[in-house]
Design a protein that fits this description.
Layout lengths: L1 E6 L5 E5 L15 H16 L5 H8 L5 E6 L8 H30 L10 H24 L3 E6 L1 H8 L8 H11 L4 H6 L5
Helix pairs in contact: 1-4, 2-4, 3-4
């Protein structure tokens, strides 16, 4: 799996991961009550996924990676890159651990609204968020654990990083990065870096 590292205007690391399409969730007519609840929760999570924090999705995708190819600007000190990435995943692991507890409690309280007819937003939304934080926490934990991680400099990242204020000037470089590393909406993601 490919992971590209950029830097915000405040000097924080901003990883971007290759895009993996979500699996299709099908709820069969012969499903029992538990299977329907699980299926609706998964569907809600996948619908919300596009609206969630990008790095939550990034961490959850890392659950599927057996090896990670990390590309960073050539201007960065190669000895510091693994530590910066480790600190990023460590902070994400803690953040999603806290929110996992909060949303799990809210989902539990939403169970009491199950007898009310109609969609149970008090349960399904917190349950989907609990699932999202659980998956992100698992991915961050796997990224922190022992796995094959390969670090490599990528000069194209330097070109993009130098023109973050005006990505139109390097639109061909951005398109090249998207094609080379299977990225989606890279320019939209990078436009956030000047805001952070």
């Amino acid at each position: 799996m490919n992971l590209l590292l950029f830097q915000t205007s405040r000097g924080e690391i901003f990883p971007v991961i290759e895009t993996i399409p979500p699996p299709e969730v099908v709820i069969g007519e012969d499903s029992n009550r538990w299977q329907r609840i699980k299926g609706v929760t998964l569907q809600t999570y996948h619908r919300l996924k596009e609206k969630l924090d990008y790095h939550e999705n990034l961490c959850s995708q890392l659950r599927h990676a057996s090896e990670l190819h990390v590309y960073h600007p050539s201007s960065w000190d190669p000895a510091e890159v693994p530590e910066r990435l480790r600190l990023f995943f460590k902070s994400r692991y803690r953040k999603h651990g806290r929110w996992l507890c909060v949303d799990a409690v809210l989902a539990f309280l939403g169970i009491f609204f199950m007898p009310i007819p109609g969609p149970n937003f008090f349960f399904y939304y917190p349950a989907a968020r609990t699932l999202g934080h659980y998956l992100a926490r698992r991915g961050a934990k796997q990224a922190l654990g022992p796995r094959q991680i390969f670090f490599q400099e990528e000069p194209l990242i330097d070109q993009v990083q130098a023109h973050l204020g005006n990505l139109e000037r390097v639109s061909d470089v951005v398109a090249d990065l998207e094609t080379r590393y299977q990225l989606k909406n890279l320019a939209k993601l990078l436009s956030r870096l000047t805001e952070k």
